[in-house]
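Quick illustration, no need to memorize.
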Amino acid sequence: MTTNNIKQSFRSLKHNKLYSFLNIGGFAVGFAVCMVLALYTFKEYSVDKGFENHSKLYRLIDTERNSCHLDYDVAQSLKAQFPDIKIAVPFDYVSFADEKANIYMKKLDGEDFIQSKSMISTTNDFFKAFSVPIIAGNSDAPFADLNSAVLTKSIAQKLFGTTDVIGEIIDFAGMFSIPVSAVCEDIPANSSIDADIFYNSENENFRFSQNCNGNVCCNPVDIYVELNDNVNPKQFAEVANKNFPANKMSTKNIRLQPLTDIYLEPGIEANKNKAGSKAMMNIFLSIAILIMLLSVINYVNLSISKQLTTLKDIAIKVTNGAGVKQLRGYYLIDVSISVLIAFILAIGISALVLPFAEQLLGTTLKLTWLASPLLLVVFAGILISTILISSFAPVYIVSRFDVQRLFGKKQLSLGKQFGRKALTTFQLSTAMMLLIGLIIIQKQIHFVKDKDLGFDKEQLVRIDYTKGAQNIDAMKQRIDQLAFVQNSSLSHGAPGSIYNKMSSNTKDKNQFMFDCVFADDHFLETFDIQLLEGRGFQNSDLNNACLINETAYKKFGWNNLENRKFNNGKEGGYNVVGVVRDFNVASLHTGITPVCILYNPQFDCINVKLAQGNVREQIQQLKNIWGDFFPDEPMRFSFYDAYFDAFYHKEEREGKAIAVFSIIAFMITCLGLVGQIFQTTNARIKEIGIRKVNGAKITEVMAMLNKDFVKWVAIAFIIATPLAWYSMHKWLENFAYKTNLSWWIFALAGVLALGIALLTVSWQSWKAATRNPVEALRYE
């Protein structure tokens, strides 16, 4: 019996080629998309789980400021004071992995240089806590002394062609030279941190960050702790907060953030680790679930539609003695074969599209992750559920009819089929929600990229050099003499790159933090920042004056600038001589912050405003001047427009991914509509024939067949609109500046969905409407 059922199933697939293609192909495509998104979600949720001790590692968070930055000295104080802490690690992470930095390293006296991805300033305890193996050097003390560095295996091989590099000297971006004391394995790829070089933070010169409050300065860093076995992190935090060590950042209360939560927990101030978006992950996970549901619904609908066309075959089986058990067996085998074929095709499709998916999602994916226990259980559940529903539904429908009616001439009626209509409405609602989300995401990306930042970023290039480099003024004079250079300014820090933060030092509860830029007297003109009150810098102001933005002026609560001072940065503070228009110093994910522009000669970059022209030629002339002053170093430069656009590359990539998945969802929904129109026309063939014999026009027949689909689209629109509005409203909360959820977005999505639905079903309804009525009525 089983063998016979298998043969009949394959004959049925061959005989009903169109149904087989729509059914198996649609399910396979949907399953493949679900697989790819499942792999992506699986990877995102497994970030930082590659560290051996990840379950015991926590980052300290200042609960009052919700900041991961604590005073450097707190690490050892905690270790000495609380025996529950096995290891405490100060950790300062600086990443150059994006397009906004151009930092290089090379062998001392070497000519070839390589791009540096990121660097970490820490202690020997880092390698123990994070279980990073040392493959060359002393594993107990990778930093041999204060002035030593540890390279990763891959960077050592790129620089020297070997890992046997102990004692070799490297030149880091022309800033300093340092000997290599050890080589370690690369940081796990699926991690929120990355590094190619480590520095010993016990050497104060290798502490990259500094905050000052009056004359009190400290080094803000992340602090990771590894707790002893069986220590409850919440209970430990409660104990630690009762007697937290005194520190220069006035931290009094902390919580412990699990290492594996860092990547997807938003809103942590001063976080430098790579960050994912939990909201976007939920969107992708929802898309995967919805596309899978659309595919399953399509498969079930088309399977039932196919079975209904063979009711007389079923009647023959029943007449020959087949019972419900035999029918279930037949359908179980028939559906299982189709589902397994679709599953195999889905794996093949996933393998083919994986390189494109990796490029689209900006990550590395491995098909072998499908063998993980979690994903195996999920996909096995989907397959079994699909097989059971698709197998037993036809048997249930057949059981409602008398065998004699199955052989009769009267058209069988399946009732109003509320379930089928509900499923179709669900499919349309889902597709419409994805379309609305796609439009809003694209609108938000254009909004943030086009928004006025308070300064002119066009044709503005930044050239970095080592702080303290010689002859910078002479090089700037040469640059200013170029005909295409409209303005130039020296600075330390600039919009998009703030290295210094200082307190307002107001000695009251209204104290707040400043983002500080050290700049010369041409800064405002070069960046086209508007001066609202007071005056710009004069030569006599050097190291004595500053400008503040509108936000800082309001926070101070001043009504004039007479005798006003910013009492920080140096003894005696700086005279506030002017107020400038607010301008963004970070991405539009965050709002405007208090900014102070200090007339202080601690510069490390030249900002150059270029005229419209041949940019390639202009950059080459700038490189020629650079080469005259620094012949052994490459010119490190970046354009501010590209610099700020890079802040939104992640959203752009996600928007493209959602666009692709939305198109696929619409295609799957259209396949479902094709199945529905097949069912509708087949059920109403004789009705259509009678109407045409009685004078009905083709357009009238098409309108009759299509009106249900218009009704379904309208109901789907009513369902999808509030759900899409809520989802996208939550997503826009990731931005301090956001576009409006305009009514036309929802209307446009509704019109597009209606148009696509009508185009999809109209060709089949036209085919049914133009059919010769004699063919439909010839047996009557």
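The chain has 22 helices and 26 strands.
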